[in-house]
Specification:
By secondary structure, the chain is an alpha+beta fold. The chain is 26% helix and 33% strand.
């Protein structure tokens, strides 16, 4: 359910961009979704379809790219990509980490049809 508001904002952005270029139809939307975001791709698709109904984005194909989780160690300042089985710093083994990427949710590209 928490995807609804984020997808609503995303659909509005897609429609706005399509209108700016005077597009008659949005044929494809590429979405970047961070692996730590906690969003379900199926839910995003369902909400997008519902919210785009009756707009230039209705029927647009959705493609997804996953943004890997990036972390930075507070102890030794090492930046690294998350290892799915080990959440500690690979340099000093600290668990004092800051998330630097992996919570993204945005439109990366839009394919449109114009008159």
């Amino acid at each position: 359910m928490h995807e609804h508001h984020a997808v609503d904002a995303l659909v509005k952005q897609v429609i706005e961009k399509a209108h700016l270029v005077k597009a008659t139809k949005v044929s494809r939307v590429m979405i970047v979704m961070g692996e730590l975001l906690g969003f379900d791709e199926g839910s995003v698709r369902l909400y997008f379809e519902q919210l785009a109904e009756g707009t230039v984005a209705e029927g647009a194909a959705l493609s997804f790219k996953t943004a890997q989780a990036g972390l930075k160690c507070k102890s030794c300042q090492t930046s690294f990509l998350r290892d799915k089985e080990n959440f500690s710093c690979p340099s000093c083994c600290s668990m004092q980490l800051v998330i630097t990427s992996g919570k993204e949710f945005y439109v990366d590209a839009i394919d449109v049809e114009s008159p």
